[in-house]
Amino acid sequence: MKPLVSEIRRYLRLWRLLLRLSLSEMLMFRINGLLFGLAPIVWAATVLIFLGVIFSKVKTLGGWSLWETVFLLGVSETVFVVYWASFLINLRNFINEVRTGRFDQSLLKPINSRFLVSFRTLDFTLLGSFINSLAIFVVSLAKVSDQIHFSRLPGFLFLLAAAYAICYLFHFIFASLAFWVVNARPFLDWIFEIADFGHYPAGIYPPSLRMFFTFFIPILFFGYFPTAFLLGRLDNLYLGIAILLILALSIISRLVWRAGLQRYQSASS
Amino acid sequence: MAAISVKHLKKYYRVHQKEPGLLGSLKSLVQRKYFNVEAANDVSFEIKEGELVGFIGPNGAGKTTTLKCLSGLLYPDAGEVQVLGFNPWDRKQTFLKQISLVMGQKNQLWWDLPPIETFNLNKEIYEVPDAQYKKTLDELVQLLEVEDVLKIQVRKLSLGQRMKCELIAALLHSPKVLFLDEPTIGLDVVMQKKIRDFIKEYNQKHQATIILTSHYMGDVEELCQRIMIIDKGQLVFDGQLSEIIQKYADHKLVSLILNQAVDPKVVAKIFPVKEFVYPKLVLMVKRDQIASTTARALEQLPVADLSIEEAAIEDIIRELFTGKDYA
Fold it and tell me: What is the β-pairing status of strands B52-56 and B226-231?
């Protein structure tokens, strides 16, 4: 037990150091800080206007009111921005590293190479997007607070954590295809593109598509399931589904990673 | 016990060939032509602890592939490899803490940060105790004379400064085995010399086992007594540097300083001239004809001075790679 605890502490220490380096790296480029907020504000305004137009014609969307839908948007976007800044950026970098052979350096280090690949950097330039989506979350939370089941808060938090685990594992499997196809970036990009479907109430999709977005490309975990659970629109069964999905994806990602490492050809010097 | 033991190592790459142009790209999309590259083909050798071995060969001969197999980056297709008693591709942390691979054309330093940040990160990754880290860093910084660049962004350093910092990053954990893949590539002669001196001192001081690949024969000549030559994935020579001269150099160089100009065309007709820039005439003479040719030259040419030398190792190796006659 003690070696495990000290190992966890070691990795946490390393992660803290990597975060510090990422922040230092970003601060080297002072102008980046000034460009933080503009693009996300434009994006948020566009989506909110789009929702406003829809709700001027209908009272509910897939059974959700305007503010419930905005709340869903706030949750899913906040989760997504954090995910992008912490994991997605690393997986994209990893694909590039395999192509260029820079992945050699991760393999030569006496730490878990998967850890280094997944946690090497944190994209602080997304801070503006984070603040933006958090603002949508907080404002809409005040509007739907009377519908929130506070007894379901632990389940909500669990599903949020599960969302990160599921999406990370899912993307990691696709990123690992870089060992075979070298440029696996398109695989991540098309998954990223359809992630937008997770911003809206799942009731608008036919059952077959809901199944697809739950088990095959599990984007509904990325906001919809946690939010629906907190609002009392989802039963406990989904907590179990999340656990099973995490277990299954963990096994698959481990197998793919190990097979990929054996296949790794590096790049000539 | 050998620090490194390699038995019948084989590593093949399957690569596809593409004809030039857009049409070639489209063809390659529909029907790909694959062929196997034998990067390492039945390579066997042993290296003792503390040895500094030069590993040379033409481009694409299999040097880097072999080093990558030894450091655990690549899974071999066949054969046995033991480095410090470990199977490299198990990538055990205890193994990785004892080796280092420096590639002249790939860096581990964080590009947008000063080198000291990468050093600090490596300290944590390799779990180097504070006191040891400070001592090693001070020593390396002093030896390589990089005190002034530690806090400057890596992207703003010169190639030589970067290479020095790469070496520091690779040596902070005091590895017992060091793989150096063209560490002097692209450096000017002064910097090459500094890096060579450093490698020599590190090898002697720490008794580290080092394999060095380089296209600069000066590196190998100055640092290594033993060299291994690889070509087309096969080890074609493994022995002392001096043996190469005995085995492959069947000529010696007879240098003459003339005290009177002679017609180069006439000289070329009666002597095996290697180069002639008056007053220096260099003859390339077969070993068994040294005495007779020298006597003839003294008799027929206005010689002021004469010396007999072994052929330059660089020339021998170049001819070896060009002629491909390793028998």
Answer: parallel
